[in-house]
Amino acid sequence: MEVKVLNISGKETGAKVQLSDAIFGIEPNDHAIYLDVKQFLANQRQGTHKAKQRNEIAGSTRKLYKQKGTGGARAGSVKSPLFNGGGRIFGPQPRDYSFKLNKKLKSLARKSALSYKAKDNSIVVLEDFSFDSIKTKNYVKLVADLKVTDVKTLLVLGAANENVYLSSRNLKKSKVITADQLNTYDVLNAGTLLLTTGAVKTLEEALAK
C-alpha cells in the first residue's frame, strides 16, 4: 500500500512510503484484537477494592436478645450481614486483574488493528518533525492543517520528542506516543492514525519479526 508523505502543514512533500502488506494489509483477526484489548484494560485496573466481612467489623459480640420467645429470628451478633452496618457477604477483595498473552498473539492483534486503519484510509504519514518550543498552539495548528481537529488522533513518533509530547498533552482528542509504545487499544480508539516516516520504519522492523 503506497501512501503520500505530508508535512506538518498538510501539504504533500512529493515523497511516498510503501506500507508493508505483511503489517498493514493482513486479514484482521478479531479474536486476537479482543484478547489484546481485554488484557490492556485489565492491566489498567488497580484492583484495590475492598469491603469488610463480618470478622473485620468493629462492634460488640454480645447476643442481641434471647434465643427464643421473641417471635423473630434468632440473632447472635450485631456484625451479621443481615443487619445494617454488618459485614458484607462475598464482598470485593483486593486482587490482580492482569494476565499474560503470547508475544505472537499480541503482534497479530497490533497488525490486525493497523490493517483495519489502512482499509478505512485512516492512516496519515508525516515526515519526521519537531517543535522549537513547547506550545499547545503549535499542535493545534498541526491538527487543523491536517483537517483532523474534530477527530481523535494518535500520533506515533519514531523516537521520543518532549516538545511534541508536551505540546499535545492538554488536548483531549490528541495522544502522542513512540512506535515502541504502540498498542492495539490506542490504535482502535483513535479515529485517525498519524505516523511519522521514522515510526513506519520502526513498526515494520518490530512487527516483521
Automatic annotation (TrEMBL):
SUPFAM superfamilies for the chain: Ribosomal protein L4 (SSF52166)
GO biological process: translation
Signal peptide span: none
Keywords assigned: Ribonucleoprotein, Ribosomal protein, RNA-binding, rRNA-binding
Top-level taxon in the UniProt lineage: Bacteria
Disordered as annotated region, ranges: 48-77
InterPro entries from the UniProt entry: Ribosomal_uL4 (IPR002136), Ribosomal_uL4-like (IPR013005), Ribosomal_uL4_dom_sf (IPR023574)
Gene3D superfamilies (UniProt xref): 3.40.1370.10
Record Pfam families: Ribosomal_L4
GO cellular component: ribonucleoprotein complex; ribosome
Molecular function per GO: rRNA binding; structural constituent of ribosome
Subunit text: Part of the 50S ribosomal subunit.
NCBIfam families in UniProt: rplD_bact (TIGR03953)
Function according to Swiss-Prot or TrEMBL: Forms part of the polypeptide exit tunnel.
Annotated family: Belongs to the universal ribosomal protein uL4 family.
Identification of the protein by name: Large ribosomal subunit protein uL4
UniProt organism field: Mucilaginibacter ginsenosidivorans
